[in-house]
TrEMBL record:
Residues 336-483 form the Asn/Gln amidotransferase domain. It catalyses: L-aspartyl-tRNA(Asn) + L-glutamine + ATP + H2O = L-asparaginyl-tRNA(Asn) + L-glutamate + ADP + phosphate + 2 H(+); L-glutamyl-tRNA(Gln) + L-glutamine + ATP + H2O = L-glutaminyl-tRNA(Gln) + L-glutamate + ADP + phosphate + H(+). This is Aspartyl/glutamyl-tRNA(Asn/Gln) amidotransferase subunit B. Allows the formation of correctly charged Asn-tRNA(Asn) or Gln-tRNA(Gln) through the transamidation of misacylated Asp-tRNA(Asn) or Glu-tRNA(Gln) in organisms which lack either or both of asparaginyl-tRNA or glutaminyl-tRNA synthetases. The reaction takes place in the presence of glutamine and ATP through an activated phospho-Asp-tRNA(Asn) or phospho-Glu-tRNA(Gln). Belongs to the GatB/GatE family. GatB subfamily. It comes from the Bacteria. It comes from Hephaestia caeni.
């Protein structure tokens, strides 16, 4: 799929080239090289071990679970898993980096090349992933706690990150947004990152350059730590337009690091872009290389769940529409809930329509996520079963569903207690039809005189008289017979 997204400049069309470096916090019981907690929202400097604070004589020990989660992530995007990898020191001074260096992987990453398939405008495109390496996060400087001083919180110092580096294969903000959403979905399915961008557990560095279509790559800028899909798309659009304006005004793009301001929707220069040699990388002397055996890799592979792409294909094979399949697989909680609904015996196509319309509509109204649904998958399956066997009409099912949302009761019990069962008793329905026709003799004459549209009026009057409990199919059949 070739993107048609172009920036219209004074000198013609410009193409945008985009690559993303996503930092995803690894879901684990502790930090990458220490046993300190990683819980979000703790009081400053309460989750810091002696290793995280870089006290003299402290040695890092790799957390097996962090490595396992990174390997599982690599397997989920069908990437090369490197059985031998190594940690390097990235040397720089900053007040929130107690060691004076960051432990990362530059030359020999844990995970090599893979790919992620995205869908934009009903077309599919494959985005290459260059590598996934694991590294430790830095702390956080706080400048708003005191009028003249800055404080440092080391709670995040040493937290395990996966840096997922894409190839520069994206050509529009929409493609970058689709890539980020798909990557987040995969991470959440795998369970290797919670994908919570608001809490900083997933953030993106956005590399953007522009060129005339078909030309060589232009000079790129990197916009750091963008923390939402929408902001990533806005940052790309602003930065690409800014670069076009600079070039067309006779200037040149400087390779630099920039920051995105969500309040103004603009980027601003932060510092000139460093190259690898500026950080004086060298192998970390305190850490042996990582060597993975086949048993460990087999265990990682066996632990993977059914991933969004495979799940979507399964849903399509069960007669679910492409739109519904996309909606149901977008978030792992939705997919799990829907799978439980199918396991409880619901028919796939009917169930998918009901979840996408009735359930999502109700949850939006209540301001709840699907994991907080007052109606369980087994209760929903029972409700759909009552519709399928003719016990409930569509309108009665809506009534029962509303009561279920309020009371969390079982549908069968609600139907029994409140007398909401649909009637297919032809004698009772015929009697009501006769009464409706007797009360509307003029309309009966009009209908028989050729005004076919009045048929809906008679259906409505009959259903109203029977408080919505008549079987609509039986009503239609008997009305056609009675009206001639």
């Amino acid at each position: 799929m070739e993107s048609t997204y172009r920036i219209q400049g004074a000198t013609g069309e410009w193409e945008v080239v985009i690559g993303l470096e996503v930092h995803a916090q690894v879901t684990s019981n502790a930090k990458l090289f220490s046993g300190a907690s990683t819980a979000f929202g703790a009081e400053p400097n309460t989750q810091v071990s002696l290793v995280d604070a870089a006290m003299p004589g402290m040695l890092p020990v790799p957390n097996r679970e962090c490595i396992r989660q990174a390997v599982r992530t690599g397997m989920a995007i069908e990437a090369q898993i490197n059985k031998w990898s190594r940690f390097d020191r990235k040397n720089y001074f900053y007040a929130d980096l107690p060691q004076g260096y960051q432990i990362s992987q530059l030359y020999h990453p844990l995970v090599g090349e893979g790919s992620i398939e995205i869908e934009v405008d009903d077309a599919t495109k494959t985005i290459g992933v260059e590598r996934i390496h694991v590294e430790q996060d830095a702390g956080k400087l706080m400048h708003d706690q005191h009028p003249t001083r800055s404080y440092v919180d080391l709670n995040r110092s040493g937290v395990a990150l996966m840096e997922i580096v894409s190839r520069p294969d994206m050509r529009s903000p929409a493609e970058a947004g689709a890539y980020l959403r798909k990557l987040r979905s995969i991470l959440r399915y795998v369970g290797s990152c919670d994908g919570n961008m608001e809490e900083g557990s997933m953030r993106a560095d956005v590399n953007v350059s522009v060129r005339k279509p078909g030309d060589d790559l232009g000079t790129r800028t990197e916009t750091k730590n963008v923390n939402s899909v929408r902001f990533v798309m806005h940052a790309i659009e602003h930065e690409a337009n800014r670069q076009v304006d600079v070039i067309e005004a006779g200037g040149r793009i400087v390779q630099e690091t920039r920051l995105y301001d969500p309040d103004t929707g603009t980027t601003r220069s932060m510092r000139s872009k460093e190259d690898a040699h500026d950080y004086r990388y060298f192998p970390d002397p305190d850490l042996l290389p990582l060597e993975l055996d086949d048993a460990f890799l087999d265990e990682c592979r066996a632990s993977l769940p059914e991933l969004p792409g495979a799940k979507r294909a399964r849903y399509l094979s069960q007669g679910i529409t492409p739109y519904n399949a996309g909606v149901l697989t977008a978030e792992v909680e939705t997919a799990r809930w829907f799978d439980a609904l199918l396991e409880a015996g619901a028919a796939p196509a009917q169930a998918s329509n009901w979840v996408a319309s009735e359930l999502f509509g109700a949850l939006n109204r209540l301001g709840k996520g699907i994991e907080e649904s007052p109606v369980s998958p087994s209760q929903a399956a029972e409700l759909l079963g009552l519709v399928a066997d003719g016990t409930l009409s569509g309108s009665l099912a809506k009534q029962v569903f509303e009561i279920m949302l309020e009371t969390r009761g079982d549908p069968g019990k609600i139907v029994e207690e409140r007398g909401l069962k649909q009637t297919s008793d032809t004698g009772a329905i015929e009697q009501v039809i006769a009464e409706v026709m007797a009360a509307n003799e003029d309309k009966v004459a009009d209908y028989r005189g050729g005004k076919d549209k009045l048929f809906g009026f008679f259906v409505g009057q009959t259903m109203k008289a029977m408080q919505g409990k008549a079987n609509p199919q039986v009503v239609n059949e008997l009305l056609k017979k009675a009206l001639g």
